Amino acid sequence: xxNRAVPQRPNGQTPGKICQFKLVLLGESSVGKSxxxxxxxxxxxxxxxxxxxGAAFLTQTIHLNDVAVKFEIWDTxxxxxxxxxxxxxxxxxxxxxxVYDITNQDTFERAKNWVKxxxxxxxxxxxxxxxxxxxxxxxxxxxxxDESQTYAYENGLLFMETSAKTSANVTEIFKAIxxxxxxxxxxxxxxxxxxxxxxxxxxxxxxxxxx
Amino acid sequence: MRDLYDCLVSNMTEFAEENIVLEGFLCPICKVDFGLDxxxxxxxxxxxxxxxxxxKSFKELFGKAKEKILNNDIVKKEERRYVWEPQExxxxxxxxxxxxxxxxxxVEHFVMETNKxxxxxxxxxxxxxxxxxxxxxxxxxxxxxxxxxxxxxCPDCTKSFNIxxxxxxxxxxxxxxCHECSCFLPLSKAYETINETIQNPMDFASQSLPSFRLCxxxxxxxxxxxxxxxxxxxxxxxxxxxxxxxCKNKIENDLLIxxxxxxxxxxxxxxxxxxxxxxxxxxxVKLIETIDALSNRILKMENNSNSSKTxxxxxxxxxxxxxxxxxxAIPALPSHQEIEEIAKRKREAxxxxxxxxQDLCMDKNNLSVKNKQNRTSKNxxxxxxxxxxxxxxxxxxxxxxPMVEQMNIIKNYIKQxxxxxxxxxxxxxxRNLQELNEEYFxxxxxSDNTSDY
Lengths: 211, 453
Fold this sequence. Notes:
The complex is a heterodimer. The longest helix of chain A has 17 residues, at about 105-120. Chain A is of the alpha/beta class. Chain A has 8 helices and 6 strands, in the order αβαββαβαβαβααα. The radius of gyration of chain A is 17 Å and the shape is globular. In chain A, about 40% of the residues lie in helices and about 25% in strands. Chain B is mainly alpha-helical. Chain B folds into 4 domains: about 1-60, no CATH class; about 105-230, 2-Layer Sandwich (Herpes Virus-1), CATH 3.30.40.10; about 235-335; about 400-450, DNA Excision Repair, Uvrb, Chain A. Helices cover about 65% and strands about 5% of the residues of chain B. Chain B has helices at about 1-20, 35-45, 50-80, 95-125, 130-140, 185-195, 200-205, 215-230, 235-265, 275-300, 305-330, 335-375, 400-420, 425-450, and strands at about 170, 175, 180-185, 210-215, 385. Chain B has a two-stranded antiparallel sheet with strand order 1-2. In chain B, a hairpin with a 6-residue loop joins strand 1 and strand 2 (about 175). In chain B, helix 4 packs across helix 8 (about 215-230). Chain B is elongated, with a radius of gyration of 59 Å. Chains A and B meet through helix 1, helix 2, strand 2 and strand 3 of A and helix 12, strand 5, helix 13 and helix 14 of B.
């Protein structure tokens, strides 16, 4: 256990609060899920990003004040073929980003369906963020900000319009999610092992459900 | 005489008081020695009779009363110095109704008088003969002239009539006044008063007396009527001024706002708004020209009174000032080239920012590497990104079943995570692989079952 913990500690400093969250990206294919997450994790952008097979796995830690928030990001494939995999990834997730393309109204409708599915079947209390990607193509916009803003407000979603290309709002949306996620019952992964995170997440959701 | 005597007596008494012992026929009141008893008796009868006592006692009473009143006055004066406590308002009665009644009576009276006067004037003007003698007869048939034989003085100034001060008849009421107490109503004005245009001005010009003599009362009635007519009438410059204000409002509340919006867009490099901006600008200029023309027209208008002259001058000055300030406030539009340059600069800045954004991320990575080396450095920033980790997906994982595909991917990921000593990630991925296995197993079972049935 102790061996495991060492490389994971951020910058080797004394382990403060480390919160680990499972985050899943959902959305129609080619709306920019992988680009968004690649921008967040690696700070890179590829103009011709290959389409994802299955679900890609990435991790990134952000430091919010004294708390280190580690995201385990599951970047699912948007293609219809892989949709059967999606429930496995959003099932235990504490956060989800539903991405659509602001230049394509259909992707927004698909995003709404994803939100519905999450609200029905994902962990109760899951933090859902709606991301309107490709903000750099603002002049070709077909989904108005007001429309999605209202939709997000009505459904209690975080909402931002992002651009993986210009990196506008990319870090911000993850930061907003990290701020919204509950951090009080998080564990020090180094001491208590990983599994507790999930079980506690389950507890948390139960309690919020009963209230 | 009596006063003198009293005075003498009082002096004597004073003297008597000084010489304490007095003898003889002394009056018991005034202590004067009369020498003989008869004299004393007479004196007493005369000077100190009962009436005298009464008078004295009255005098005393008056004196006391006087004193009291004086004292009271003093007390009142003292009382006035006190501040009165606020008093409750007693009964209140509105006199407005009474005032209105009185006023209505007066108004009615004047309206009646005016109407009568005007009607008489109308009759007088109807079929007015041109010949002076005939005219006089005509005037007399309409309004009965007062017989002048009994009128010795002018009823207005009470000056007596004589050869130099002749009697004159008011053509509207027939009363007699002197020349000084009368006025003349020109015919043109008379027609104006009864709202009739002069049919043939030449006829009147040829007349010797183109006016009516009126007493000052009738003259006043007509003049009042004219004034009331003009009171409700707006001076003609008002129309022009309203038009000016309309233009001004349109400039301020509509065009200038639009212009500023478009101007700002142009400054942002939006070339497509140039045409619109020019149009708005020309609209504003047109309106300003209109304002200028209207204010000129006001200035050139015929103004009778001094006050309206100054008003029109002031309007003109204000408009000159307004036009100047508005014209100066409208900024010159940037040229076609300038806008293109702005747009170009903006594009370059955007590109630079894009590149910088990537660089910044690189810097961040470098920074965190440095932080790793420098173990003591603290994590003070509010938001800091670490270098994330992502395994590479191999292309040759293809399978018919996406689940199998994913399992292959995860197996590959686990290998990479182990190599990178990312044991946390390894654990997560292993757990996922297990879930996938279970899911796959379930799926296989289901398909087996369905195929069995």
